[in-house]
Design brief:
Layout (H helix, E strand, L loop, with lengths): L1 E2 L15 H8 L6 H15 L3 E2 L10 H4 L2 E5 L2 E8 L5 H14 L5 E7 L1 H5 L3 E2 L9 H18 L5 E5 L10 H12 L6 E4 L8 H4 L6 E5 L9 H4 L3 E5 L11 H15 L11 H11 E4 L9 H24 L1
Parallel strand pairs: 1-11, 2-5, 4-6, 5-7, 7-8, 8-9, 9-10, 10-11
Antiparallel strand pairs: 3-4
The site of zinc ion has 6 residues, from loops.
Cofactor: Zn(2+)
GO biological process, one term: methionine biosynthetic process
GO molecular function, one term: zinc ion binding
């Protein structure tokens, strides 16, 4: 199974050390976050992750995008929201350099954007739009974010749209569906939608969104497991609890994967599976494993150890299934 991350990673910046870095710093062009990206990518590679992220180190999931879009002053909306220039492309190209430097294996990069409803719900509307739920604001955000996706799609192997706010019930799911469609249609690589929290009540609707993969929390939200019986999309299977600092055992993660497997067997997508070999093939097509959510708030050694546990557990799970 493909192993990936949801996105964010603990941020370890580096102050200027040598003379040249200090000179750059005087001119305001020393980039403290480059080290943070390098550290995040190296940790993911060392842990055995197949599709890595840039660690989303330059700010929280909203800051990263509003800082790069026209129409914002900090987290305040002061004008019509529009795309200005690629926001994450430079860091994605840097991630590719780090991969080439540290890994001989084939590794992919996940392009991540924060969804229009989540951004709209996290900013203060001061001008141009009526309020946070103004549909025009949501669609303008979607149009701008689509251009961001178009600017990075040649450099990544999949796109993930983060819309945690959809599980809170604050946003109309029909509006969200239309906004996501604007972003995802005519994109030439797979698009995932990450919604954390309990999605068991809104899952039927999420299943109709124009995305290829639904990515949810299963370690900390066991109610979500029922989704596996009905989904007709690929699933990003969050199997590591990112809300607690304690590191789960390999056994706990394997148990969760086995539980998922038993439920998936009832899914029509798995109905014709005969042998364990076919089962593994189908699992590889429909499931990718990742932690429940971003890891930004965890201590870095905890985040790294959790990724290692996830990779070991999924490899052991596959091996045991093959031998069964
Ligand atoms: Zn999340």
């Amino acid at each position: 199974m493909i192993k990936t991350v949801v996105g964010s990673y603990p941020v370890i910046t580096k102050e200027p050390e040598n003379l040249w870095e200090k000179v750059l710093d005087i001119f305001g062009i020393y980039d403290r976050y480059k080290y943070a990206i390098e550290r995040a990518v190296r940790d993911q590679l060392n842990a055995g992750i197949d599709i890595v992220s840039d660690g989303q180190v330059r700010g929280d999931m909203v800051e990263i995008f509003v800082n790069g879009l026209y129409g914002f002053e900090g987290k305040k909306v002061v004008g019509k929201v529009e795309f200005l220039e690629p926001i994450t492309l430079k860091d994605i190209k840097f991630v590719r350099k780090i991969i080439n430097k540290y890994s001989n294996e084939k590794k992919g990069i996940k392009g991540i954007i924060t969804g229009p409803c989540t951004i709209a719900g996290s900013v203060r509307v001061e001008d141009y739009y009526t309020d946070n739920r103004d549909e025009t604001l949501i669609y303008d955000l979607a149009n701008a974010l689509k251009k961001e996706v178009e600017s990075i799609q040649d450099y990544v192997c999949m796109i993930q749209i983060d819309e945690p706010i959809l599980s809170t019930g604050l946003y109309d799911l029909n509006t969200a569906r239309r906004a996501i469609k604007r972003i995802s249609e005519n994109i030439k690589i797979p698009v995932a939608l990450h919604v954390c929290g309990d999605v068991s009540d809104i899952f039927q609707e999420l299943n109709t969104f124009n995305v290829d993969i639904l990515d949810h929390e299963f370690a900390s939200n066991r109610k979500n497991l029922d989704i596996l019986e009905e989904t007709n999309k690929k699933i990003g299977f969050g199997c590591i609890n990112t809300k607690v600092k304690s590191i789960e055992s390999i056994e706990v993660v394997k148990d969760l994967l086995n539980e998922a497997l038993e439920i998936l067997r009832n899914n029509p997508l798995f109905s014709e599976v005969q042998s364990n070999e076919e089962l593994l093939k189908r699992l590889n097509e429909y499931l990718m494993v990742d932690p429940d959510c971003g890891m930004r708030l965890l201590p870095i050694d905890v985040a790294y150890d959790k990724l290692k546990v996830m990779v070991k557990a999924s490899e052991e799970f596959e091996r045991e299934l093959r031998e069964r």
